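Pasting as-is:
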Amino acid sequence: MHSKYISRSLTRTASRIAAIDMADSGGPDPAKSHSPSGTGPGSPCLSRRELECLTALAQGCQDLQIAARLGISRPTVRLHLANARRKLHSITREQALARAVALGLVHV
């Protein structure tokens, strides 16, 4: 039940952020880097580990759970999430996750 609420909330938040970003910038910025998966202009280039950490975060995992799942340390999880926040121009990890969902980089 709780995860369904989180998914709906993330989807709504991601839609709002995408709409705000598009309105603020006048559309996607072709000068921004592209993701390796080729999701299109304006998509940040997130590493595989950054995407894995964001995906696990979307599934409701805490840092320790993400670390155990990926076989990495907790500080490394924090580093990947911090890098994703920076690349997604986000202040919080939740905002980074919402932006990743809005860009289609992470699916909930």
